[in-house]
Structure formats: structure tokens, C-alpha cells
TrEMBL record:
Gene giving rise to this polypeptide: pyrB
Gene3D superfamilies attached to this UniProt entry: Aspartate/ornithine carbamoyltransferase (3.40.50.1370)
NCBIfam families listed in its UniProt record: asp_carb_tr, PRK00856.1
Annotated protein name in UniProt: Aspartate carbamoyltransferase
Functional note: Catalyzes the condensation of carbamoyl phosphate and aspartate to form carbamoyl aspartate and inorganic phosphate, the committed step in the de novo pyrimidine nucleotide biosynthesis pathway.
Length: 313
């Protein structure tokens, strides 16, 4: 397979395992490129990409911008806080105005689930979802699975525990879909109030016991407690959450086998993960961030190639 089956990256649910494999193979080549002294290729020369962030971001935003620049694209950045959205302009009006300035691709993070899909139905541009509410975060899942495969050699048959706030997490849903498509087994672990009722329909195991999950898994992906999406109290206190669902060095060292530790960031150090664990040699948190640039280069390149607007390097 040499081209994607999709015209946009809206969610992992629209991808086939062959698409994911193609993205991984392309990302591996781009990872080699960005580790050279000259890190740029001309693949997106004369292509303009707009990064529209209606919600805060550090990693995703910088990672997309770097990926675009490494591919020689022209880049414009937009943040809702300093835009005319605050004056009441609609999403479609905002994006159509930006596209009138001859923008070829739009990367968008938005607090509303389905916003990227909605945009793809109403504007004539390639759309990349950089996170839509508590729905999907496809490039995060791709970089997570790529990083696991890099560390463990394969995803098929591997056991991945996703721990914490599953209810509010777009990372959890996209990870579950991506890992399953690549043959891994997934368990979600957390307090019952933070696990969605329909979760069994996704074919995942469910646990409320962190130690048992960690003994079962090869990899633990520790999610952040999303205070900004919680208007209710889902557990009695942060202290109690940490005691039951936080991982520290004593627990990690007490396990029967060595596991890999991941976190999508931003980390709440001392809440879901201790500093010693986050910075340990079992953690691949910074590898995830590094791989994010290569994965996003691959996604942008393959979508542009599908629309035949990329420059053959
Ligand atoms: N992992 C992630 O999406 O981080 P940011 O919110 O900083 O982009």
C-alpha cells in the first residue's frame, strides 16, 4: 500500500491497519531525516498549513509546527484567545476566511467533539484533527503506538494498560482503537466513576485495581486527571486518587516483571505518576514527544501526497 485510504485525519476509527502501517513506515524514514544535521526535506514546499488551536496545547502545537517546517511548508498559527472568535465569528466563517488566503491544510484542536469532522464536511481543505474535546486525538495515538513498537519490537499480542481518567480522555479512545487495530490487547484501569459505562462495547478489559493491571501489562500508559473537563467530583480527593491510581517507584520496583511507562503529557507529577517513575529508564515519555514530530510529518506528507499537492523529495 502506497497511499492512505482517507483524505483527512479525523480519527483512528476511520483508519485501516494498513493506513497505520504506512504512517509508521513513513514516520520511521522521517525520524531518520530529523536526526540528520540538515533536518529539512522539500516535500511540502509551496504548501501552506494553518494550525488552528481553539484549546491550549504545548506538545501537539509545537510538534505540528516543527513537522510542517521540517517538510518546508509555510505555516500560519491561530489561537482562539487572540482571534475574532471572541467577537462571535463562527468556526466555518473563521476557517473559510483563512482558506481564502490560499491555505492548503488545516490542523485543528477544538474543545467540541466532532469539530474536525464537521469542518471536513463544510470547507475545501485537508483537515487534521489535533484533538476534539473528549473524542479523539489521532496523532497522539499514532505516536504512542509507534513508540511502543519501537521499544518492544511489535504491537501484536502486547498487553497495554491505560490508567486513569478514561471518561474525559480523547487519548484513551484513540489509543484503544489504534492498539486494537495493530493487534494489541487493552485494559483500562481507574475508579468506576472515571470509566465510561459503554467501555465493554470497545472490547477492552476493565480493572479497578492498579497493581493487578500493572502485573498484567507490558506497558502502562498513565493518563492525566483532567481537572479542566471535570465539573463534578469523580473521586473524594487528589490524595486518595494518588494512593489508589498513582504509580510510584516502590510499586514499579515491586512488580514481578519490568514494564514500560508512558504518559501523553502534560504530567501532574506526584498525582498519577511520581517524578522518579516519570524520569526512570523504564519511561519512554520523551521518546513519545520525539516520535510525535516524525508521526506528524508522515501524516501531513501522506495526506498531501493523496491529494497530489506534495513535492516529490
Ligand atoms: N499530549 C498532548 O496533547 O499535549 P498538549 O495538550 O500539550 O498538546
Amino acid at each position: 500500500m502506497s497511499e492512505l485510504t482517507v483524505n483527512h485525519l479525523l480519527g483512528i476509527k476511520y483508519l485501516q491497519s494498513e493506513d497505520i502501517e504506512l504512517i509508521f513506515q513513513t514516520a520511521a524514514q522521517f525520524k531518520e531525516v530529523i536526526n540528520r544535521p540538515i533536518k529539512k526535506v522539500p516535500s511540502l514546499r509551496d504548501i501552506t498549513v494553518a494550525n488552528l488551536f481553539f484549546e491550549n496545547s504545548t506538545r501537539t502545537r509545537l510538534s505540528f509546527e516543527l513537522a510542517e517546517k521540517r517538510l518546508s511548508a509555510d505555516v500560519v498559527n491561530f489561537s482562539a484567545a487572540s482571534s475574532s472568535v471572541s467577537k462571535g465569528e463562527t468556526l466555518i466563517d473563521t476557517v473559510n476566511n483563512i482558506l481564502s488566503m490560499k491555505v492548503d491544510m488545516v490542523v485543528m484542536r477544538h474543545p467540541k467533539p466532532g469539530a474536525a469532522y464537521f469542518l471536513s464536511q463544510h470547507v475545501d481543505s485537508i483537515i487534521v484533527n489535533a484533538g476534539d474535546g473528549a473524542h479523539e486525538h489521532p496523532t497522539q495515538a499514532l505516536l504512542d503506538s509507534f513508540s511502543i513498537r519501537e521499544r518492544l519490537g511489535d504491537l501484536a499480542g502486547k498487553k497495554i494498560a491505560i490508567v486513569g481518567d478514561i471518561l474525559h480522555s480523547r487519548v484513551a479512545l484513540s489509543n484503544i482503537l489504534c492498539l486494537q487495530k495493530m493487534g494489541a490487547e487493552v485494559e483500562v484501569c481507574g475508579p468506576s466513576t472515571l470509566i465510561p459505562k459503554h467501555i465493554h462495547s470497545l472490547g477492552v478489559r476493565v480493572s479497578h485495581d492498579l497493581r493487578k493491571s500493572l502485573e498484567w501489562c507490558d506497558v502502562a500508559n498513565m493518563l492525566r486527571v483532567q481537572h479542566e473537563r471535570q465539573d463534578l467530583k469523580y473521586f473524594p480527593s487528589i490524595r486518595e486518587y494518588t494512593q489508589r491510581y498513582g504509580i510510584d517507584k516502590a510499586l514499579l520496583d515491586d512488580l514481578q516483571h519490568k514494564i514500560v511507562i508512558m504518559h501523553p503529557g502534560p504530567i501532574n507529577r506526584g498525582v498519577e505518576i511520581s517524578t522518579e517513575v516519570a524520569d526512570s529508564d523504564q519511561s519512554i515519555i520523551l521518546n513519545q514527544v520525539e516520535n510525535g514530530v516524525a508521526i506528524r510529518m508522515a501524516v501531513l506528507y501522506l495526506l498531501a501526497a493523496k491529494k497530489k499537492i506534495s513535492f516529490s523529495a
